[in-house]
Design goal:
- The complex is a heterodimer of chains A (110) and B (117).
- With 110 residues, chain A is an all-beta fold.
- Chain A has no helices and 11 strands.
- In chain A, β4 and β5 form a beta hairpin.
- In chain B, strands 2, 4, 5, 6, 9, 10 and 11 form a 7-stranded mixed beta sheet that branches. Chain B has a 4-stranded antiparallel beta sheet with strand order 1-3-8-7, with no helix packed on it.
- In chain B, β5 and β6 form a beta hairpin.
- Chain B starts with a strand and ends with a strand.
- The mean pLDDT of chain B is 94.
- Classes of the chains: A mainly beta (110), B mainly beta (117).
- The interface between A and B is medium-sized, with 25 and 31 residues.
Chain lengths: 110, 117
């Protein structure tokens, strides 16, 4: 079992729709969780961090964490073509270093 | 302020050569990380510095890889006797989090694309 699992996609959604990206992790001791956006040929950009169970909203983005189910998700409302990218889920299973999933490719279609 | 910077942006070398990759973290960030990303994969942890010392080097694949951060700011990743399998994008990240902190937002530089021919 991989430490952090994501569906590689591509996930295609129409412009204006809600995109839902999911991630599961194996280490129950993980304390912090992050979503990074990576455009093709660019480096990862931090877009959300979440540390407690529940929802955290920032603009069009909502991160959701359920530690009991070892599940973290990212919702993108009113999806735009500029949201088309690979979204990386990262987990902090040991203090200070991050373990990444392989990423989900999101395509927002006009 | 300025973000994490990395030089060079691209490096092409021949098998067996030595290379150095440089990272300049965000000013004031005490924690610095090196990751490696291959095509279609997420970044893979290599080494973590807190200040000048390597707090965790468990991700370094073998003894051809070495990294230093002598003054607690700029870091250099050194690869000896490069192999074709070393070809990847090498990413540096920095964080203001102290050692053992769970609130560890890491900010990445643009990366160095290393190609070993």
């Amino acid at each position: 079992q991989k430490e952090v699992e994501q569906n590689s996609g591509p996930l295609s959604v129409p412009e204006g729709a809600i995109a839902s990206l999911n991630c599961t992790y194996s280490d129950r001791g993980s304390q912090s969780f992050f979503w990074y956006r990576q455009y093709s040929g660019k480096s990862p950009e931090l877009i959300m961090s979440i540390y407690s169970n529940g929802d955290k909203e920032d603009g069009r983005f909502t991160a959701q964490l359920n530690k009991a189910s070892q599940y973290v998700s990212l919702l993108i409302r009113d999806s735009q073509p500029s949201d088309s990218a690979t979204y990386l889920c990262a987990v902090n299973p040991l203090r200070n270093k991050l373990t990444f999933g392989t990423g989900t490719q999101l395509k927002v279609e006009l | 302020g300025a973000g994490v910077s990395q030089t060079p942006s691209n490096k092409v070398t021949e098998k067996g050569k030595y290379v150095e990759l440089r990272c300049d973290p965000i000013s004031g960030h005490t924690a610095l990380y090196w990751y490696r990303q291959s095509l279609g994969q997420g970044p893979e942890f290599l080494i973590y510095f807190q200040g000048t010392g390597a707090a965790d080097d468990s991700g370094l694949p073998n003894d051809r890889f070495f990294a230093v951060r002598p003054e607690g700011s700029v870091s250099t990743l050194k690869i000896q006797r490069t192999e074709r399998g070393d070809s990847a994008v090498y990413l540096c990240a920095s964080s203001s989090a102290g050692k053992g902190s769970s609130y560890n937002e890491q900010f990445f530089g643009p990366g160095t694309r290393l190609t070993v021919l």
